[in-house]
Structures are given as C-alpha cells and as structure tokens.
Amino acid sequence: MSALPLAEGWPGPSAERAHLVMLPDHPGPYTVDDWLALPQTEERIELIDGSFVVSPAPAADHALCAQRLVRALLDAAPHDVEVVESPNVQVGKEGFIPDVVVARAEPIVAGAVVLDCDDVLMVVEIVSPGNRKRDYVVKPPSYAEAGVPVFLRVELHAEGPMPLVEAFAERGGEYEPLATARAGQILVLTDPFEVRLDPAELTGPRRPRQR
To answer: Where in the numbering of this chain does the Putative restriction endonuclease domain appear (predicted)?
Structure first.
C-alpha cells in the first residue's frame, strides 16, 4: 500500500493535516476507473495526467464565492439546467472536480456519480494560491478540447478590484476570451443562458435584498 501523493501547497508530514487516502501500489498511470473507485474522503482528489492530485478543503472566502455564484446562476438558469458545486466531471482521460458546474439537469437529478462533458454547459474554477497553475495552465485546455462551451475563472487574490471574473467561449477546441469584469462592473453572459453579475456580490458582507 502507498499513500496518495500530496498536491503542491498541501501541508507536509510534520504539519497537522487530514488523513491520507491509502492506495494499492499501481504499475502505471491511474485511469478514470481507478479515480471513480476511490473511497469517499474529505480531500478533493482529481486525476490529472495519470496521477492523483489532492487538495485540501477550500478557504472560507473560496467556499463563499462558490456558494454565491451557484445562487446567482441558478436564479438565471432555465428549469432543465442545474448548477452544482464540486461534482466529478470526466474530461477525456482526466477526472476533474470543478468548483462550480452548470449542466443539463437530467444526469444531476438522476444522481450521476460522474458528469460527462457532453452534459456540461459551463465550468467555473475559483483560483486559490495552491491551484493557480492548474486553473490557468492545466485545466482550461482540457475543458476546451472536451468541448465544454463556457469556462469561467474567478480570481480572488490579485492586483486591482477583486474579484475578477473572466469568461471564455470554446471555439475549435480552444478557449477565446468572451467577457471580463471586476468588482463594481457588470459581467454579461448570454451563453449558456443570459445572466448579469457584479463580481463584488461574490465576496464580502452579504448585501441586503432589493425590495
């Protein structure tokens, strides 16, 4: 048996941390079937380039951003579309867990263990210090190649008014910039459905509801 390798930014052996998932020794790259056979755990485990990558639970501001984004997208979504946090998504030979996914309702309501990219309309990745390379370099090309129509990236910690939300549209297996908005600006999307969003609403104190 061997311990699941730790992702960059995860506390080392001397630090206090959650248990490691123990896996049988494996002669080669892991597959999606291996990924789906993993036991349930508190850690977020993704399959990237044949290896398992483990991330700790997100920070509170990251979780709050995801929750508010789900609410905003659900308010605008048609009834045959659902918006969920952190589902398993098979992306080619990879197994990703996006922060937020907009997908056709049928497989989600049916309790699918993993979503196929054919059912996914939008993925959202919220950048954290430990996953920056994955959200800027590793994941977007895989999502685009798999045909995910819209990719949204939310930056919480960078220069300028935050959050920063960037939207990209898939064109020929690659992503092209679609729209960008910082806190205080309005992000307008028409695909996969019409939604208007001020990124400032994703963080900070909750604003009173308009009556």
So the answer is: 33-195
